[in-house]
Amino acid sequence: MIMQKRLDYSFNGYQVPRASRSPRGRGTVRKRPDSNRIQAFDILASVAGNLLQKNQSSIPDNAASAKDPLAVFGINIKENKQENQVGSFKEEQFENGTCSEVVSGCVPSLQGKHENQRVAGDSSFHDNHLEGQGQNVIEREDERVKLRSTNEKTIRIKNRSDGLIEPSQRASRDCSAENHVEKPSLEGHFRRNLDSLPNGSGTRKLLNRDDDENFVRSTELNSKNKIPDPPTDTIKVKDASPFVNDENNSGDNSVLENSEMMYPFKKRKFFYQTSSSTSDSWSHCQGTVDSSCTRVNGTNHGTGGTMHVIEESSSIADEEVHPESKGCNVKLSIKSFKVPELFIDIPETATIGSLKRTVMEAVTTILGDELHVGILLQGKKIRDDSKTLIQTGISQDDKRHRLGFMLEPRHNRISSSYNEDPCFLTTGSQPKLSRQSTSLMLQQGTYNVSRERSTVKIENCAEGDLNMVSSLGEASANNNNMSKCRALVTVPAINMDALAVVPYRRKSGNSYFGQRRIRRPFSVLEVEALVQAVEKLGTGRWRDVKQRAFDHAKHRTYVDLKDKWKTLVHTARISPQQRRGEPVPQELLDRVLSAHAYWSQQQCKHQFKSM
DNA sequence: TTTAGGG
DNA sequence: CCCTAAA
């Protein structure tokens, strides 16, 4: 109990993104009263959000990144060229990224440090330098930060090549603003990519239209560029459809495929969730830390490297726990969570987009589920939640022990009634990949997790836009790595045992019903796919539309498509100013109206005939 | 199961 | 997105 409470405090100290309500205030954010879980989730959400953000922000021209896009996820891929078509990726021990990173000390407030930290921290999301220079904490950059009290900490997570998820920055807002700055930052990658696009002008236009939407547009653009056959608004009569539609252009699927990577992560504002219990001892400590993120106790754990240490610094009192240690609180600053190692099995011929999507799926699939925070001490999982920190050995007296935090799914098995295929690699242009070959492979098996099960959380994320997260799958339980990085804790991510410890009312079968699905705004690409399909099939054959253009998007039902069409028509009819969400190109909206008019007319004719 | 529409 | 009557 106490342990939990302490953890809670710690998390309370972080500013984690909070789910925001949908623009129209219709989305329902359902949170469970379990604050611990939710907070942990939120953190994860932010992690995922960043993961996604980065993952989708085009391919960095960073050599390393380009070579190993998964690196940012701490995913090691081993390509086995022996198997030509389907490269097989085998398990590979984490070289350096299997630990959670924890740094003790108070988390500094970021006030007035945004720019600074951001720049420094973003120099490269691929390097390992981490906040070597005293930026041991992650921060979330957002105007709202300014509003927070100095007692609040922020968490910034950024992806690291070593598998540690680290806080991140906002990629979008600065996108356009720093166009001229040449920094190897994510934004830089982003920017360069955009600039290198064939039609840079269009890009810019999009990027500058709305800061908050930059991210979306950017990714969208990138994605769009992959569309084999750019949509056209030309209307020509062909077949029974007056709309463009190249039968031979596997465009239908391609588009959709591409659209798959368009997750509902719009770069919007981040909402920080402040814990209700703000007056804990931790908070008090905060006041002693300056915004430069100076480490408490003068110890620079992991400086310049990525070692993460967790060191507890002592100080203030800790009531109830231990009389003898009264006056001492264990302060922890969790720099990063350990993320399970993921294994991706994807054909060589798969596109980068596919890879991204696959990884994306893997991450969301895993993290999207019920999450749980595991605590590890010296590599051992602490199962007894009722133990006190000191009883467990976590105290100010011992600064040597390594504490690790890991994120793990709340479930220990993959029992999914929904079974959403995590991969959407099948496309018209790509050879069909068997699901097996594309599914996410985790060390302990294929992970075919349904996202539907974690609706609550995900919804929170989704509502908060950028926060889709997911978690872990499995981490290599490689104890050898531990020696490589002291202070690092190797954790078997999907530790069955660990999971078992946490009772979880899983939604086995149908026991967990009534859960609203996650909100997943249609991406422009999806809209395009939809429009194209409807142009061809009409507005009364949603099942066919689904089959034709969204066959592999399990989360899009024909009802969804129908609903989307409905909203598209509505959107097309209202003024641009009244539209919300990710802007849909006018060209598409025009097509929507045209198609809608055409098919409505057809419908009337039919009715007339039959009469 | 699909459609079609209201909520 | 959800819920459902109707087909």
TrEMBL record:
InterPro entries: Homeodomain-like_sf, Myb_dom, SANT/Myb, TPR1-6-like_ubiquitin, TRP_plant, Ubiquitin-like_domsf. SMART domains: SANT. It is found in: Nucleus. Gene3D superfamilies: 1.10.246.220. It holds the Pfam family Ubiquitin_TPR1. GO terms for cellular component: nucleus. The keyword Transferase does not apply. The keyword Magnesium does not apply. CDD domains: SANT_TRF. It comes from the Eukaryota. Residues 14-33, 192-212 are annotated as: Disordered. Its main location: nucleus. Keywords: DNA-binding, Nucleus. Residues 514-569 form the Myb-like domain. One of its GO terms (molecular function) is telomeric DNA binding. Residues 514-573 form the HTH myb-type domain. Residues 21-30 have a biased composition (Basic residues). PANTHER family: TELOMERE-BINDING PROTEIN, PUTATIVE-RELATED, TELOMERIC REPEAT BINDING PROTEIN. This is Double-strand telomere-binding protein, putative. The lineage of its organism: Eukaryota, Viridiplantae, Streptophyta, Embryophyta, Tracheophyta.
